[in-house]
Amino acid sequence: MSESFRALCSDFYVNSKLSVKLELPRTRETVLEFFERIRRQFPDMEHFRRYKDELALESPQSGSPHRWAAVRTTSVRGGVVNPERLAEAYSLHRHLLEASPYYLTIRPLDIDYFELLYGFDFDCRANHDGVIFDALMAGSPLGSLLEMPGAAPIDCQPMACFAFGERQEYEAQFEVKSRRQLPASRTGESTGEPISVYITIRRIGPFGDVRELPDALTDLAARGEDLVQHQVVPRLLVPLRDAIAFGSSGA
Prior knowledge:
Layout (H helix, E strand, L loop, with lengths): L1 H7 L2 E10 L7 H14 L5 E4 L4 E4 L7 E6 L3 E7 L4 H18 L7 E12 L5 H10 L21 E6 L5 E8 L17 E10 L8 H33 L6
Antiparallel strand pairs: 1-5, 1-6, 2-3, 3-4, 4-5, 6-9, 7-8, 8-9
C-alpha cells in the first residue's frame, strides 16, 4: 500500500509515540543501552544526537528509508520516512514498544497513550492556504464565508478529531498543515516547505500489561490503514494532489 502513497505525495512517513505520565530515566547509561539495543536491530541507525528536548538515534538523512528514534521527558517516539512497505515502518515501532518498557522502566499504570501518525507531504509552490481552500473547502457551507469581493484565504488549516470504541478508548485526528509566507513578502509562492496531511490514531490507556503494546500497534495499524485507504486518500489526498497538479491559483 505504501507504494501507492508515494505516488500521491512527495514524502510519506509513519511515526509512533508512547506517552507516559512520569518522567523517563535520562541517565547516560540507561539511554545509551536502549539506543544500542535499537542499533543492533537496525545497524544503519548509528547517529546519536542531542537536541533541546530529546536524545535521538538516526539513520543517515539520505538513506531510504530514513529511520529515527527519540526519548523525551515523558515519551518515546520513532519514525520511518519513505518506507518501501508499511511492514518496514512497523518493524521499528514494534521494536521500540518491546524494548522501551524494560530499558526505561515503563509500567502499565504509567502509560498515558500510544499513537501512530501517518504523514503525507506535498511539494507546492503556490499559496498553501489558497490551495487547501480550493481543494477541500470551496463550495462548502464553511467555505461560503469567503464568498465576498476580494476575499482570499490566509490561514486555512482544517482539523477534526473524534473518539470511538466501546469505551471511547480510541481517538482519530485529521489535520492539514500549511506553511505561510511572512507578512512582509506575500509573493504567492511557498518557502519550499510542503503542505502536510497528518492522520493520527491513538489508543488511550490504561493497559493491563506492557506486553499488550505490540498488539496495540497491530490493532492501530489495521484501523489506521483502513482510515487512510477509505477516507483520507479519496477525501483529502487526491483533492490536494489534483489541486496542486492542475494549477490551483491558491488565491
